[in-house]
Amino acid sequence: MQNNTLNEVTVFTVGGTETALAPVRGRAVRLPNALQTALADRYPEPIARLLGEAMIIGALVVQSLKFDGRLVVQCHGTNEGAVSLLMADCTTQGHIRGYARYDEDTLQSILLDNRNPGADALLGGGTFSMTIDQGSDMDLYQGLAAVEGKRLSDCAEHFFKTSDQIPTMMRLAVGQDIEDGGSIWAGGGMMIQRIAEDDARGETGDVYQTATALMSTVTDAELIDPDLPMETLLYRLFNEEGVHVLDTSSVSADCRCSRERLLNTLESFDAAAIADMADADGNIRAKCEFCDVEFVFPVKDVETA
Ligand SMILES: [Zn+2]
User: Fold this and answer.
1) Measured in angstroms, how far is the CA atom of residue 285 from the centroid of ligand 1?
2) Which of 45, 182, 197, 269 has the fewest CB atoms lying closer than 10 Å?
3) What is the pLDDT of residue 72?
4) Dist. CA 256 → ligand 1 center (Å)
5) Closest to 6 (Cα-Cα) out of 34, 28, 27
């Protein structure tokens, strides 16, 4: 029996006689309910869609890291857009969280002209970046691309083309799934990349070209539909070229913020700064931007140096 509520990433290859030498590698993600946890009731629809796209990109790309770490997908908008910051933070263990900072008035004026604004309109241009955090003693890796196109997948494809020179195709879909009379945010995505050719692998461009043509037929509904097993969809798309599922792993929407970590940060300030941060009742209030949980620290409990 297929469990259709699993949030999962599937790693696959297309073409080739041996999977280790396949000319095309891909990953697909299906999030039947993880996005709901992150987006529900917190954002207006166009912003929720955009943040959902960023979280799907994060879930797809973080799986390519060969070490434990995290990937941060970030967009910085301009004054012409409603969204000034969009951030999705994903770990190799499959924990994803997201946050958007936006201006309600600007959003309303954008919606007057365009009922269905895409990434370019919501951000007003700006930059798209992916940062890999390899742990505290290692350097950050960062690349940038301009925000262009309606979908954030356009930015991600552009990012791979300019920073890694890896031919990449990405599709994302975010929608509201009707369930038990209500609706919940659900999403899915897929990416394929051409592996550089070498003596053992041979030429890889032809299979990649064919795979992009096949993948261009995938619909948003197919990417999102929790009742369509991902393996079935991959077979439906790439069967002619040969498709192999290598691995599946779970994804969950949860925040790693903790009271203890916040307290440690507060305790690095001096007593005067702590007194400044306190409200009239002698409490410091700090809200996690990712999950909206508010932490309250009585000043007397903060042991400053
Ligand atoms: Zn949090």
Assistant:
1) 14
2) 182
3) 93
4) 6
5) 34
| Non-local CB neighbours of 40 within 8 Å, separated by 6+ positions | 184, 185
Cα(100) to centroid(ligand 1), Å = 13
Instruction: Give CA–CA dist 211/223, Å, rounded.
Output: 16
Burial class (CB in 10 A: 0-12, 13-18, 19+), 115: exposed
- Written in H, E and C, the secondary structure of 68-133 is CCEEEEEEECCCCCCEEEEEEEEECCCEEEEEEEECHHHHHHHHHHCCCCCHHHHHCCCEEEEEEE
Interval 191-206 mean pLDDT:
91
- Confirm if 207 and 192 have CB atoms less than 8 A apart: no
Q: What is the CATH number of domain 8-253?
A: 3.55.30.10
User: Tell me, which fold does domain 259-301 have in CATH?
Assistant: CBS domain Like (3.90.1280)
From the CA of 292, how far away is ligand 1's center (Å)? 6
Ligand 1 centroid to Cα of residue 69, in Å, is: 18
pTM, rounded to two decimals: 0.90
Token duo for residue 246? 């290598």
Please tell me the predicted confidence (pLDDT) of residue 255.
86
Which H, E and C letters describe 261-272, residue by residue? Answer: HHHHHHCCCCHH
